[in-house]
Amino acid sequence: MTRALFTLLLICTTALSWGQNTAEQKKLEQQKNKLQKEIKEFQSLLSTQNKKEKSVLVQIKESEAKIRLTQNLINTIQKQSRLLTDNIYLNQKKANKLEKELEVLKEDYANTIVKSYKSRSDQSRIMFILSSENFLQAYKRIQYMKQYANFRKMQAEELKEKMAELEALLEKLKEQKKEKENLLAETEKQKKELEADKKGQDALVKVIQKDKKKYAADIKKRQQDEKKLEQQIQKLIREAIAEENRKRAKENGKSTANVSNTKIELTKEGKIISDNFKANKGQLPWPVERGYVSQPYGPYRGQADGVKVHSNFFNNGLDIATSKDADVRSVFGGEVTLVTHVGTFDKVYTVLVRHGSYVTSYTNLKSVNVVKGDKVGIKQTLGKVWTNEATGETVLKFYIIQDVSLLNPQQWLNPLK
C-alpha cells in the first residue's frame, strides 16, 4: 500500500514538473521570438539610415543597444538549452523505466502463451469442465476460462500500448536532442555576432578617447537634458492634475483652494477608463509601428567606455529608435490633456494623453495632429517623430505615469509585431 502511494506521488510530481517545464519553454520561446524581431527591426532601420549623418556617441549608443539585445538573446537561448537538457534527462529516465516494464510484460506474455499452448486442445478444455464435482464448480471453471482468455487479450493490448508509448517517447527524445543541437549552434552564431559588435564598439571608443573632454561634456549635457525633460513632464502632469481636480471641485460646488496635484479625483467614467487601461497591461501596442528599444527603462551607465561621466543614471521612460518621419500613435483611448514644447529644443513637441488615473507621454515630436481636449482612440496618430539633424537620431521618448508615479513602459507594451 505504501509503495503504491509512493509511486502515485512520484507520477504526480513528475507530471507537475513536466507541465511547469512546458509552460516555461513556451514563455522562453516567446521571449526569444520577441528579441529576434527587435534585432531584425534594429538591422532593418540601420540599413535605411545614413551612418555618416550620425555622431560617434549615437553610433556607440546604437552599438550598445545591439550588444544588449544580442546578449539577452544568448541568455534566453541558453535558458532554453538548460531546460531542454532537464526534459531530455526526465524523458530518458521515463524511457528506461518503460523498457524495463516492457521486458517484464513480454516475459509474462510469453509464459501465458506457453501455458495456453500446453492446454490448447478442445478436448483438454472440455475434460477440465466435465471433471468438475458439481454444476457450480463447472460454471466457475467456464468463467475462469473466459477470464483467462480476456487476460491474455489485455496482456497483448497492454504490450502494444507500452511499445507504442516507448516508440513515441524515443522519437520525442530524438527531436529534443536535435532541437538542443540547433540551440547550441544558434548560441555559437550569436556569440560570434556579439564578439564582432564588441570589436566595432571598441573601434568607436578609440575615436572618443582622442578627445575625452569634448565627448565627456556632450554625454553630461545629454544626461542633464534627460533629467530636465523628466522634471518638466512631472511638473506639467502635476499642473494638469491640479487643473482637473479644480474643475471637478467647482462642478461639485466645493472649494478649489487646496486640491491635490498628485492624485486625480476620478469620475465614474474616468474610473472605468482607468480600470480598462490597467486590464491591458502587457497588451498595449507600441507608440510607433516599427523600431527598437535604444535605451530601456532602468539604471544604466552614464558613460561611453573610457569616458566616464555619471555612474548612477536612471531612465524613467523608454527610448524607442524608429525611422525618419515615423507616425507616433496613442497606445490607448483617452483624452489629450496637453500639447506643448518641452525639453531643450523649441521646435520639439510633447503630447500627454490621459487614460483615467494613467497618463502616456510622447516626447520628441516634430509635428502634431491633435490639440488639447481631443478624444483619441487606440493607435490614432498624434504626430511625427523628430529627427535630430546634429546627431542623426530619430528617437521617441515614451513614458507611462500613474498619477505622478513613473512606471516601467516595457511591462505595459505588447511585444513588437
TrEMBL record:
Kindly list the GO molecular function terms attached to this UniProt entry. Answer: metalloendopeptidase activity
Stored SUPFAM superfamilies: Duplicated hybrid motif
Q: Which CDD domains match?
A: M23_peptidase
Please list the residue ranges annotated as the M23ase beta-sheet core domain.
314-409
Domain of life of the organism encoding this protein: Bacteria
Q: Which residues form a coiled coil?
A: 21-115, 149-246
Q: Which UniProt keywords apply?
A: Coiled coil, Signal
Q: Which InterPro entries match?
A: Cell_wall_metabolism_enzyme (IPR050570), Dup_hybrid_motif (IPR011055), M23ase_b-sheet_dom (IPR016047)
Q: Which residues form the signal peptide?
A: 1-19
Q: Pfam families attached here?
A: Peptidase_M23 (PF01551)
Q: Establish whether keyword Coiled coil is in the entry.
A: yes
PANTHER family hit by this protein: L-ALA--D-GLU ENDOPEPTIDASE (PTHR21666:SF289), PEPTIDASE-RELATED (PTHR21666)
Q: What is this protein called?
A: Peptidase M23
State the organism named in the record: Flavobacterium beibuense F44-8
Its lineage opens with:
Bacteria, Pseudomonadati, Bacteroidota, Flavobacteriia, Flavobacteriales
